[in-house]
User: Fold this.
Amino acid sequence: HYGLGYLQLLERPLEAKHLDRAEVHIRRAIGLNPQSPFGHMSLGWIHEMRERYLGQTYRGWLEEAILLYDRAHNLNDGEAYPQTRADLLINLCNAFANMGNGWKQAQGFCRKRWKMKMPFITRAREALFHLTFGRAATAMGDAKAATRHLELALDLSRLLKKKDLEAEVLTRVALTAHLTGDHARSNRYFARAAKHYAAGGQEERLAG
Assistant:
């Protein structure tokens, strides 16, 4: 059942019907082997995608995802399956960050993932991790950590040639500098971000 459910999650474009079908199979897999972390982890991802990807907000999907990720994390043998632990820490970091009021928890899970010193599966995932870590650190008033991880995200966005991501990171760096009183640096980075958004026809991204 787990394999059948996982196959549904590989469908592109991913639609609600695929998540619904996957949930049926994965719930059956959990029923057969409730001590395995993988079913809980995948069910958490299904709930997270319903809110973040399909836009089904205010239905408690992220809260459910966090509970499932935490359960999977507790069931997983981190020594035997360090990659699973690393993935779950990122999932928890992202889910709390997307709650909008879970920055303390997000920073804590990001810090645990960073301390594992494991390589990331892809450069793109690594860049997004550093962006999220930087956002969480900014929200928690940890300017040193915020600057470090946002600069890492910036380097990776340039390496990947992802202009939209680079513009977002530049904006975050500018905001962090502003909050710490470094207005000259803030203005420089906001100006660079504005150029990227203007080139992409997205000037309104800086309007708010």
